[in-house]
Design a protein that fits this description.
Strand content: over 45%
Order of helices and strands: HHEEHEEEE
Helix content: 10-25%
Shape: globular
Number of helices: 3
Structural class: alpha+beta
């Protein structure tokens, strides 16, 4: 998957509906998010997203893409999102694996809100 498509895929995880999210999360996915219970399985993350309004917009900066082996993509970036006037920022990583030609799933995702301490 070329870089432009990687970022479209990642953006869809932030702004797409719960069904799209469900289709893109691997059954073995693990996530760390800045809300309780903090460590989520894929099913727990899907359930949490289904109950949460989606972000109306998101922008990425500080973007990095790595391809450590065939069929595996790792991205790192800063996300700045908004919904209903509520702003959110986090530093994120996502690991995607290819199941078959042109079929990718999220295997890992992590969000760290910016630290306020120097």
């Amino acid at each position: 998957m070329e870089d432009a498509r990687v970022w479209e895929f990642e953006q869809s995880l932030w702004t797409g509906d719960a069904e799209q999210y469900r289709e893109l999360i691997d059954a073995e996915c693990l996530m760390v998010l800045p809300e309780r219970p903090y460590v989520f399985t894929g099913d727990q993350a899907i359930e949490a997203v289904a109950k949460t309004p989606r972000w109306s917009q998101v922008t990425f900066s500080e973007k990095q893409v790595a391809r450590p082996q065939e069929g595996l993509i790792v991205v790192a970036y800063k996300a700045e999102a908004d919904r209903d006037g509520r702003a959110y920022a986090a530093y994120c990583t996502t690991t995607m694996r290819r199941l078959e030609h042109d079929e990718w799933r999220v295997l890992q995702h992590q969000q760290t809100v910016p630290l306020t301490a120097g």
